[in-house]
Give the backbone structure.
Amino acid sequence: MSDIIFEDEQGNRITREDLANVTGKIDFSLIGRESIPFEAIEMHQMARQEGQYGRYAQAIDLLTKTHQLAPDWPYPLYDLAYTYLLQKDFEQALAYYRLTNRLEPRGFFTCKTAIYALEGEMDKLFPVGQYLHYLSIEWTNDEDEKLEIAKAITEQTPDFAPAWKELANLLTDTSQRAEVIETGLSKQPDLETKGNLLINKALVLDMQNRTNEAIDILGNLVLDSDVTLTNEAMGKFVLAQLASRK
């Protein structure tokens, strides 16, 4: 059994050792947290609690102070962006998502998708409030409701790529998923959304007994210099599952 799972045109390789013990998950709370004062970590937790209770002004104040204590930590900036988003202050939300992206260029949670969506709203490519409405898919636990929201967005705003990604995640019919994935990839998605669509495409190909094609897609994604942290982690995880059968 070869140790090499994938090799790209430049000779870069992915081996079985590279895929050992992968979980597909990233602990974003740890990124940039090295040598951060305990006071900042404690204040950040307090801010998140205030936000959960809907006390956004207090949350913003605490998050701002946390950022001042730990300027290289992306998490407080990300939470500031999200808090402003919930207040429908989309301009401030975008500003803080951009700052978060500067601190972690490889993607912090869904930061890249947020920037894509909010910039699209500012440029009038998408309706104002589109991203906030899109997030309601995540907020509901009802699968039928999730599917209904995703379908509605793709019908009303067909160029909004993240909704096609969600639709691909929610559909169960393989042929429908394949069609939706290709549509999403054609909509110039942000890097996070594109990676998720490619991982879904690989999963569909594997279901169609086209595992070698699936491995090629995942290998190229994982080795791409622009791959996001989340996509790399999940790409490796799925690749490990496919490779274990070969």
User: Anything to note?
Assistant: The beta strands are 4-7, 13-15. The chain has a mean pLDDT of 96. The first helix runs from residue 38 to 52.
